[in-house]
Specification:
By secondary structure, this protein is mostly helical. The chain folds into 2 domains: 8-71, no CATH class; 77-187, Aspartate Aminotransferase, domain 1 (Alpha-Beta Complex). It is built from 7 helices and 4 strands, in the order E-E-H-H-H-E-H-H-H-E-H. It has helices at residues 32-42, 60-71, 73-91, 120-129, 142-146, 151-159, 171-187, and strands spanning 8-12, 25-29, 112-115, 160-163. It has a two-stranded antiparallel ribbon. A two-stranded antiparallel ribbon has the order 3-4. Helix 3 packs parallel to helix 7 (171-187).
């Protein structure tokens, strides 16, 4: 179910992800040499230093939370998918999932994205005024820190909004988010 599409998969266990463990993550690799290289980087305190190696291991507590997350993954996937389908119905054409080629049918969103042509900040500010925490999918495009020009990334950053979509939202909270965001979309 996870890590089966590519040669290497990197999973985040941040609190908002499908497998929430607070922090941390894991790497899944098909190639044993790649897996060994990742282990060498992970276990940098066990051997001579390697460039790029850091001791960023999960604590036992975080690992236990991640293990529980793996055990509950199918239920989490199901809940998030159902929530996204309710958002699809409520939020109309701004819902990025409306474009079938952009959202593979089995995907479970850990975020719910809206496409607002260069109006993301406007919705984020309006939602914040109503106590709804909407954000850009990423704080800033990477090239802003590293330099370079990426017009497509700039356009995506100006146009995409991540709306709260968590299985732990109550039906009342979810309804409030849908109603408020829908009203904002209608008025702009």
């Amino acid at each position: 179910m996870l890590g089966t599409v590519a040669d290497v998969a990197i999973l985040s266990f941040f609190a908002t992800k499908l497998i929430p463990a607070g922090e941390g993550g894991c790497v899944i690799a098909r190639d044993p040499d790649v897996a060994e290289r990742v282990r060498a980087l992970r276990d940098c305190d066990q051997r001579a230093p390697l460039a790029g190696a850091f001791n960023l291991k999960l604590s036992d507590l975080h690992a236990a939370l991640a293990r529980t997350g793996f055990l509950n993954l199918r239920q989490e996937w199901h809940c998030r998918r159902e929530a996204a389908q309710r958002y699809d119905r409520a939020l109309g054409p701004a819902a990025l999932r409306r474009d079938a080629h952009l959202c593979e049918h089995r995907a479970a969103p850990f975020r719910y994205l809206l496409w607002l042509e260069n109006r993301a900040v406007e919705l984020i500010v309006a939602a914040e005024r109503q106590g709804i925490s909407c954000r850009h999918p990423v704080w800033q495009p990477l090239h802003w820190s590293l330099g370079g020009v990426c017009p497509r990334a700039d356009r995506l950053h100006a146009s995409l909004v991540s709306v709260p979509c968590y299985p732990t939202l109550s039906p009342t909270e979810e309804g409030r988010v849908c109603s408020a965001i829908s009203a904002m979309l209608s008025s702009s």
